[in-house]
């Protein structure tokens, strides 16, 4: 896994309230299969349809909140933007970390 990608994942996890030692101990690298468009993580598969639904959800939420004149809304928009961009980066790169046992 590249350092930039790992930092992005840890940043997203921290913003969602998962941090510190618990995050380090529970982290398991995932594998994105560009051919099938699926993610293999924590012993299960996330299909292409679900990934696309997540991308669309985060995009819609980001757009709703980014235009509001409220600091809390803008903070949440930033969190949604990270998730949206992480999904986009994964899909566009067609790469993921090597699967590991956790």
How would you classify the helix and strand content by structural class?
mainly alpha
Q: What distance separates the N and C termini?
A: 15 Å
- Which overall shape is indicated by the principal axes computed on the Cα atoms? globular
Quaternary structure annotation: single chain
What is the alpha-carbon Rg in Å? 14 Å
Q: What percentage of amino acids are in beta strands?
A: 5-15%
Helix content: 55-70%
By DSSP (H or I, 4+ residues per run), the number of helices equals 4
The strand line-up of the biggest sheet is 1-2-3
Regions with little confidence, pLDDT below 50 for 5+ residues: 96-102
Mean pLDDT: 79
Largest sheet: 3 strands, antiparallel
For the secondary structure, the number of strands is: 3
The H/E string reads HHEEEHH
Question: What do you see in this structure?
Answer:
There is one protein chain. The protein is mainly alpha-helical and 102 residues long. Helix content is 61%, strand content 10%. It has helices at residues 3-15, 20-26, 48-66, 71-93; strands spanning 31-33, 38-41, 44-46. Strand 1 and strand 2 form a beta hairpin. The longest helix has 23 residues, at 71-93.
List keywords for this structure.
single chain, mainly alpha, 102 residues, disordered C terminus, 3 strands
Blueprint (SSEs and pairs):
Elements: H1 3-15, H2 20-26, E1 31-33, E2 38-41, E3 44-46, H3 48-66, H4 71-93
Antiparallel strand pairs: 1-2, 2-3
Outline:
With 102 residues, the chain is mainly alpha-helical. The protein contains four helices and three strands, in the order ααβββαα.
């Amino acid at each position: 896994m590249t350092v930039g990608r790992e930092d992005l994942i840890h940043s997203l996890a921290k913003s969602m309230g998962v941090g510190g030692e618990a995050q380090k101990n529970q982290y398991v690298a995932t594998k994105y299969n560009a051919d099938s468009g699926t993610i293999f993580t924590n012993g299960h598969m996330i299909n292409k349809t679900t990934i696309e639904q997540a991308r669309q959800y985060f995009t819609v939420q980001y757009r709703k909140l980014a235009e509001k004149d409220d600091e809390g809304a803008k903070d949440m928009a930033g969190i949604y933007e990270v998730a949206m961009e992480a999904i986009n980066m994964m899909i566009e790169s067609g790469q993921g970390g090597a699967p590991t046992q956790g």
